[in-house]
C-alpha cells in the first residue's frame, strides 16, 4: 500500500472533511449508518433531518449536489424492489391514486428507500473525500483483519491490470474481424473469459512468489502510521452524535 491509487469516486479537495484521518471518517460513517438503521420507520421527520445532516457534511466537504445525486444511481435495483413491495405484500389494503396497495408494503418500501438512500449517500461522501489507499490504512488502523485488508489492497491494485488485459483481448478479437452479434458467439466470449481467468491466476502466482522471495510472511509492512488527535475524533463524531440525538427523539415520539 505504499503507492497512491486514485479512484473515480474520489473528489480531490482541501476541506476539513478531506483532512480528517481515514479511520475517523470510517468509524463516523459506520456509526451513522447504525443509527439510521435503528430509527423507527414511523419517524418520517427523522430521515429528513438525517438528509439535512448529510447535506451539511457535503457542503463542508464542497461536494456538489449533482455529483452526489449522480452517484446515488447505484441503488436503482433496490429502488425497483422497494417499488414492487406495496403491490405484492399482504395485509390491510389502502387506496393510493386509485390503486389498492398494501399498507405494510408501503411502510416496508419507505423503510428500504429512506435507510438505503441515506446509507449509500454516507458511503459516497466517504469515498468522495478519502483516497482508496487512505481507506485501506484506516481499516488497518481500526484493527480490521489483516488478511481482509490485504485482499482488498490487491484487488484495488490489480483491478486496473485485469481491466487492461480485457481491453487488449477485445482489441485482438476485433482486429480479427470478430463481433458478438448473437448466442452463437457466446462460445468465443466464454473462451476469452476462461483465458482471462487463467492469465489472472498465473499472474497472481507470480506476484505471490515474488513477494515470498522478498521476505513476505503473511503481513504487509505499515509504511504510513495514520494517527488522530482528540479534536479530530470529536469533529468526526459530530455527525453520528447528532444522528443519535435524532434517533432517540424519534423513539420517544413514536
From TrEMBL:
<dbReference type="InterPro" id="IPR003339">
    <property type="entry name" value="ABC/ECF_trnsptr_transmembrane"/>
</dbReference>
<keyword id="KW-0472">Membrane</keyword>
<feature type="transmembrane region" description="Helical">
    <location>
        <begin position="109"/>
        <end position="130"/>
    </location>
</feature>
<protein>
    <submittedName>
        <fullName>Cobalt ECF transporter T component CbiQ</fullName>
    </submittedName>
</protein>
<feature type="transmembrane region" description="Helical">
    <location>
        <begin position="43"/>
        <end position="60"/>
    </location>
</feature>
<feature type="transmembrane region" description="Helical">
    <location>
        <begin position="72"/>
        <end position="89"/>
    </location>
</feature>
<keyword id="KW-1133">Transmembrane helix</keyword>
<feature type="transmembrane region" description="Helical">
    <location>
        <begin position="233"/>
        <end position="253"/>
    </location>
</feature>
<feature type="transmembrane region" description="Helical">
    <location>
        <begin position="20"/>
        <end position="37"/>
    </location>
</feature>
<dbReference type="InterPro" id="IPR012809">
    <property type="entry name" value="ECF_CbiQ"/>
</dbReference>
<keyword id="KW-0812">Transmembrane</keyword>
<feature type="transmembrane region" description="Helical">
    <location>
        <begin position="142"/>
        <end position="159"/>
    </location>
</feature>
<dbReference type="Pfam" id="PF02361">
    <property type="entry name" value="CbiQ"/>
</dbReference>
<dbReference type="InterPro" id="IPR051611">
    <property type="entry name" value="ECF_transporter_component"/>
</dbReference>
<keyword id="KW-1003">Cell membrane</keyword>
Amino acid at each position: 500500500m505504499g503507492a497512491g491509487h486514485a479512484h473515480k469516486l474520489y473528489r480531490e479537495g482541501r476541506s476539513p472533511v478531506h483532512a480528517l484521518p481515514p479511520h475517523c471518517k470510517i468509524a463516523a460513517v459506520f456509526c451513522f449508518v447504525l443509527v439510521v438503521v435503528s430509527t423507527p420507520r414511523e419517524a418520517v421527520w427523522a430521515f429528513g433531518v438525517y438528509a439535512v445532516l448529510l447535506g451539511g457534511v457535503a457542503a463542508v466537504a464542497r461536494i456538489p449536489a449533482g455529483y452526489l445525486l449522480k452517484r446515488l444511481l447505484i441503488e436503482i435495483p433496490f429502488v425497483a424492489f422497494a417499488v414492487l413491495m406495496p403491490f405484492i405484500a399482504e395485509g390491510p389494503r389502502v387506496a393510493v391514486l386509485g390503486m389498492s396497495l398494501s399498507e405494510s408494503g408501503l411502510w416496508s418500501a419507505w423503510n428500504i428507500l429512506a435507510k438505503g438512500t441515506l446509507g449509500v449517500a454516507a458511503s459516497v461522501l466517504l469515498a468522495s473525500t478519502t483516497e482508496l489507499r487512505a481507506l485501506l490504512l484506516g481499516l488497518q488502523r481500526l484493527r480490521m483483519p489483516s488478511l481482509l485488508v490485504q485482499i482488498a489492497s490487491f484487488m484495488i491494485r490489480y483491478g486496473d491490470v485485469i481491466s487492461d488485459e480485457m481491453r487488449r483481448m477485445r482489441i485482438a478479437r476485433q482486429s480479427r474481424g470478430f463481433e458478438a452479434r448473437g448466442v452463437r458467439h457466446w462460445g468465443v466470449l466464454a473462451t476469452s473469459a476462461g483465458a482471462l481467468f487463467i492469465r489472472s491466476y498465473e499472474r497472481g502466482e507470480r506476484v505471490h512468489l515474488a513477494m515470498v522471495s522478498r521476505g513476505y510472511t503473511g503481513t504487509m509492512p505499515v509504511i504510513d502510521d495514520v494517527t488522530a488527535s482528540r479534536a479530530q475524533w470529536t469533529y468526526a463524531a459530530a455527525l453520528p452524535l447528532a444522528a443519535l440525538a435524532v434517533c432517540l427523539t424519534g423513539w420517544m415520539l413514536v
